[in-house]
Amino acid sequence: MKVLLVDDERLARSELRRLLASFPALEVAGEAANAKQAREQMAAVRPDLLFLDVQMPGETGMDLLESLAPPAPHVIFTTAYDEFAVKAFELNALDYLLKPVDPARLAAAVGRLGARRPAPAPAEGAAADARGRLEAGDKVFVREGDRCWFVELGQIRLLESEGNYTRVHFGEAQPQLFRSLNAMEERLDPKVFFRANRRQIINLSWISGIEPWFSGGLLVLLKGGAKVEISRRQAQEFRDRMSL
Questions:
Q1: C-alpha distances in Å from residue 58, one per residue of 49, 66, 171, 182
Q2: Average pLDDT over the chain, rounded to whole?
């Protein structure tokens, strides 16, 4: 897979090139210091993926991405500024990495790229997760109406089903997303999130206490005060998973 590095700082490009050497499937096919050079390089090497800085002389990385005609390469932003993250995800960026780029976050971003590439049809009965599972350290773009958040997945303590929608709890916010709880569960790391009952998924790291409950169930107390009942059926799985 061909990669183009677009950043006005030579040292930043060199460091990213060094980090990408750990991914043999990625070939750094070119570099550019501004949007004009990036367009010339894209015409020459036809990259599959751009690592794109936001703040550059002349056109910004956002301007460049908005100007690209489909089919455009995948884009992973690399920047020292976190205030452009919401805009980046509105433009369908694959990920948004803050400088200095953390190798683990880079690996997660590259893994997400693999999840977006077309894959062979799964065998009958096999489940296919087109976008891949998210890890606790990943940041996700959340939007409800005119309000937007860029939140670390590990800060989400509770997800609740509301028909075909899901209410997500983090900090003081409780936005409603237009996705079912089952669809959300498919993207969550089962080592971090647990399906407590038909209506709720909890973040295991937010548990502050557990009490016996009716009919063999459990009552979980979450940091912040929420109480969630783990059904009898799920309580046994919870014990099996969490016991020594």
A1: 22, 14, 38, 45
A2: 85
* DSSP code at position 120: P
Identity of the amino acid at 99: K
Cα dist. 139→38, 41, 192 in Å? Answer: 27, 30, 15
How confident is the model at residue 53, as a pLDDT? Answer: 94
Provide the residue type at 139 as one letter.
Answer: K
Calculate the alpha carbon distances from 133 to 111, 172, 227 in Å. 10, 25, 26
53 vs 134, residue with greater confidence: 53
- The whole-number pLDDT of residue 114 equals 60
Domains annotated on the chain, with CATH: 2-116 (3.40.50.2300), 145-242 (2.40.50.1020)
pLDDT score recorded for residue 179: 83
Find the DSSP H helices in the chain.
Answer: 10-20, 35-45, 61-67, 85-90, 103-116, 181-187, 232-242
Is the pLDDT at 171 greater than 90? The verdict is yes
